[in-house]
Each structure stands twice: as C-alpha cells, then as structure tokens.
Design goal:
The protein is an alpha/beta fold. 34% of the residues lie in helices and 25% in strands. The chain folds into 2 domains: 5-70, Hypothetical PUA domain-like, domain 1 (Ribosomal Protein L25, Chain P); 79-242, SPOUT methyltransferase, trefoil knot domain (Alpha/beta knot, 3-Layer(aba) Sandwich), CATH 3.40.1280.10.
C-alpha cells in the first residue's frame, strides 16, 4: 500500500473519481511532487478509504481515479468521548494529538471551577488549530474517521447534557477503576464518556454534582499526575479495559 494518505470531504468523491484541492493539493504538487500515475490513499473522514491513482493535475486541483475501497478499519469498537479540562500553553494540543491516535471519537474541552481560562477571545483560532492537529493525527494513525473537536463548555452546561455511562476521574474519592470497569463490562457498553479535570483539580461542588448525576467516580492511583498525563492515561486505560487496545 502507498504511504501517502490524504483527507477529502465526502463531497469531493463521485462514483469512481475524486478531486483534491486546497492544502492537500498543494502538498501533493509542491511538497511531495507526486506525478500522474502515482498511487495514494484517500479517506472521507466518516469511515471510507480508497486506493487511488493520480489521473491529472488541473490547475490547483488534483484529479483522482478511485481504484478500490479499502475495507480494513482501525477504528475502536468503543466510541469514546474525552472531556478534558483546558490546560495552559500548548499542552492541550498534545492531548488532542495523542487522544486521536488512541482512537477517541470526540474531544470536549472543559471550563471547570479551577480552570485557568482567558475567556472566549481567540477560541475560534484555537479550534482551527485543534482541528488541524486532529486531522494530522488521524492521517498518521491510519484512522479514517475524523475526531469531533467541540468548542469549550462550562461545567454547569456539561453536567446537564451528558448521557451515562460516564467515568469521572478525580484526585480524591471514588471507587477503584477495576470495580467501575467490572460493572461496565457487564452492561456491554458501546460508548462512554471520560472526564478529566484541568491542572487546578475539582471543586467540592463539582465532585458532588458528578456523583449526583450518576457519574462513576474513580482515581488514577496514589500519584499526582499532570492534567495532560491524566487525560491520555485515562483514555489508554479505558481503551485497554473496554475497547480494542489489547
């Protein structure tokens, strides 16, 4: 299989052809300098992937012939949403990259009581950057379904909209993760939400509200982890215990 993979929106595909434009086209023409007849892989972000051949260069576009549908999927059997408390600097970028590689379906940035958040200014640009990071991680990891990156939400709004089961990781209180997972395995779940706080931790009221909402409160052990470490460790553990990370 060719090593170059490119993302195209579903609208870019027809029955047996596809058209690459924008940044991906520029990368093919100016960076990789691929030629007519070269084979590449393309995916639509919603689960389909093809082996394709470059047919021609048409101005700023690259026309493809779709050779065959690639049926092998690397998507997890468990649909996982990671709710991660916002973190200062570029460490949240790292969380997004690694969470996508681990197979999460959705990432929800969270503003909780002790989150150091500067308000809505610049959120749109941050979302664009996070989506670019997620796309690159999708391509690198061989996935063909894009991870949804949501705008930041406040804790009060999040609690009202989440559906169970939810695993809520806290620095204190809660049941051992082994007990929580044992109960969830008996339910044969296919989707789950994992919540990890920001570097400031959780307030007492937030812990109380999480328990009242029916969230499964648990911890990541005795050691204190940085927020970004906790986020990735949580996803990896859940994918191993309930998903497809053997």
């Amino acid at each position: 299989m060719p090593g170059h993979r490119f993302y195209l929106t579903p609208e870019s595909f027809s029955a047996n052809t596809a058209v690459i434009s924008g940044d991906e086209s520029h990368h093919i023409r100016k960076v990789l300098r691929l030629r007519i007849g070269d084979e590449i892989q393309v995916f639509d972000g919603v689960g389909c992937q093809w082996l394709a051949t470059i047919e021609q260069f048409n101005g700023q576009e690259v026309n493809l012939i779709l050779q065959k549908l690639i049926t092998t999927s690397v998507e997890s059997t468990l649909s996982t949403t990671l709710v991660q408390g916002l973190i200062k600097g570029d460490r949240f970028d790292w969380v997004i990259q690694k969470a996508v590689e681990l197979g999460v379906s959705k990432i929800q940035p969270l503003i909780s009581q002790y989150t150091d958040f500067q308000g809505v200014k610049g959120v749109e640009k941050r979302l664009e950057r996070w989506e670019r990071i997620a796309l690159e991680a999708t391509k690198q990891s061989g996935r063909n379904v894009l991870t949804t990156i949501c705008p930041p939400i406040e804790w009060s709004g999040l609690v009202k909209e989440l559906k169970l089961p939810v695993i809520f990781f806290a620095e204190r209180g809660g049941n051992p993760l082994s007990e929580v997972v044992k109960e969830l395995k008996e339910q044969k779940i296919i989707s789950i939400t994992v919540i990890v706080g920001s570097e400031g931790g959780w307030g007492n009221e937030e812990l109380s509200q999480a328990a009242k909402a029916g969230f499964c409160l648990t911890t990541l052990g005795k050691r204190i982890l940085r927020a970004e470490t906790a986020g990735i460790a949580s996803v990896a553990l859940i994918q191993h215990l309930l998903g497809d990370l053997d």
